[in-house]
Amino acid sequence: QLQLVESGGGLVQPGGSLTLSCVASGFTLDNYAIGWFRQAPGKEREGVSCISSSGGYIGYEDSAKGRFTASRDNAKNTAYLQMNSLKPEDTAVYYCAAVMGTSDFYCAGAVTARRFDDWGQGTQVTVSS
After folding, report:
1. DSSP letter at 74?
2. If 0-12 CB within 10 Å is exposed, 13-18 middle and 19+ buried, where does residue 70 land?
3. Each residue of 49-99: pLDDT tens digit?
4. What count of other Cβ atoms lies within 10 Å of the Cβ of residue 63?
């Protein structure tokens, strides 16, 4: 059974950092693009970043550019989202999602939820003083 589990969320002060992890089980990540999304209370889920299966292509939405870094370690079956200079408006539940495909296409353009087939349960990130 394909499963994604996020961890690393928590409470952090503005300007602080967190690194989220997304561990895959039941399949190997080598052939999957990984997307990161977030959903704040009362708002729609929005894309944050996408990393291609090889890690050679990484895309970011404007909200994440310059502050967030997506990476992956396929040997560990894990993807990461390092978040720096966090702001209160970054408060949300963060999700990772996977789609089978080795083409950069899966991460080209906007990071859209409909491209992804499998989702984790999410991890809460709260940025507050």
Report:
1. G
2. buried
3. 999 999 999 999 999 999 999 999 999 999 999 999 999 999 999 999 999
4. 15
Token reading at 124: 């809460």
> What token pair was written down for 39?
């959903």
The mean per-residue pLDDT over the stretch 32-41 comes to: 97
Q: Is 54 left (phi over 0), alpha (psi -120 to 50) or beta?
A: alpha
The number of helix segments (H) and strand segments (E) in the chain equals 0, 11
Alpha helices in 3-126 (DSSP H): none
Separation of alpha carbons 77 and 84, rounded Å: 23
What pLDDT is recorded for position 32?
A: 96
CB 22 within 8 A of CB 5: yes
Angle at 12 between CA 11 and CA 15, to 5 degrees: 160
Token pair 């994604």 is at which residue?
4
| Structural contact between residues 26 and 1, judged by C-beta atoms closer than 8 angstroms | yes
Q: What is the amino acid identity at position 126? A: T
Number of Cβ atoms within 10 Å of the Cβ of 53 = 23
